[in-house]
Amino acid sequence: MSYIMMIIVAALILGVCLGALVLVPRDRNVQKVQLKANKPSKVYSKAEVSVHNKRTDCWIIIKNKVYDVSSYVDEHPGGDAILTHAGDDATEGFYGPQHGTRVFDVVEDFCIGDLRL
Question: Which residues lie below 8 Å from residue 79, measured CB to CB, with a gap of 6+?
Answer without folding.
Answer: none
